[in-house]
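Hello,

Our lab assistant flagged a job as stuck in the queue for most of the afternoon. It eventually completed. Since we weren't sure the result was trustworthy after the delay, we are filing this so someone can double-check. Below is the sequence as submitted and the structure that was eventually returned. Let us know if re-running is recommended.
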Amino acid sequence: MLNPETARRITEAVDAAFDRQLDFTAELIRHPSLRTAEAGAQDLMFAEFEARGLAVDRWTLDGEALASHVGYGPSTVAFEDLTNVVGTYTPPEEKGRSLILNGHVDVVPTGPEEVWERNPWNAVVKDGWMYGRGAGDMKAGLAANLFAFDAIRAAGFAPASTIHFQSVVEEECTGNGSLAALQRGYTADAVIIPEPEENMLVRANVGVIWFRVRVSGRPTHVREMASGFNAIDAAYTVMGALRELEAKWNADKGSHPHFEDTDHPINVNIGMISGGDWPSSVPAWCEFDVRAALYPGVPAVDAWNEILECLQTAGAGASVSAERTGFFSEGYVLEEGSEAEAALATAHEAVFGSALQSFTTPGYLDGRVFALYAGIPALVYGPVSEAIHGFDERVNIESVRQVTKTIALFIADWCGVTEAA
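-- returned structure --
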């Protein structure tokens, strides 16, 4: 536990640099780091790591190596366009406990930009909020990791253990970025991931499977429509069967600890759809893309087999096939009682003046990579945000400040600090 004077110096250093932190966050938002277009944002992260004297490692994801891992999500894009950046701080003498500060730089598409109240890439600050795609999910968190570290050094201290700063890709679609960092050998005694989590700690979250369904029909001219088979009509029948499976899985929530009181933990989302070739032809095909959730403890392969069985029995006379197109991840639970959680709770209470709360989320998180495959306590904890993945995404400025202070105090406590020379 930190002495009050050390904590005061560190939190005051966060305040002193907070305007610069917001400027950097805005600059990061101005890099539209959509999937396979993250290079500019990763250039920025590389430069920031290098400017802090970190040992910087940038590499292209290895699809063959990833495909050999049980946690791999099949990719539909070229791996040569996907790079991770890791900056490593190494103390002169290792005395404390090591740490990974992880964040993803990739963002989801904006949707029609004309519907936004302001340009999604301009990072406008208004009424205590910073707006922009990725503001909450999760560029404010990436910046918080860096500036928490800066505050410790500005306060006249040096962390006493190794810290790996990870800026990864693919969190929004496969989880392969964090998985690649783990495969590359980056491990530690704890991980913090400052996703937008309402100033709370994630206790448990679902696994996710992405897949594409193809329904095949029989084309005819519309004047002979009855003799054809409309693949788009049949696709809606298949979607209905998936909704029944969703309801079945949700009805079983009482069997899954941490999800009993969650209103609708299992969401099956039809995210994209296309089909047919001509308005005056009965469509011969229809494809739709799906994101389905699964409870922690349910093997992804078991959930996938149940999905396939559902699709095959719901074809309504059509030929139905499916392929996995991204996430093939299992959920995880952060077990209570770890030293890492206790340290975070102490830091949070020192900053917020209230106890750290935890909650269950029905969304995907890269925490599963560290928890399931490395046994590392993964503390997913971050600022208040609104409309992530939606129009006018925004993150609360004061929450970012407080979360940055919490992370800084956690680093100092967990890694230990020495007076800088």
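-- support follow-up --
The delay was a queue issue, not a problem with the job. The result is valid. The longest helix spans residues 231-251. The mean pLDDT is 97.
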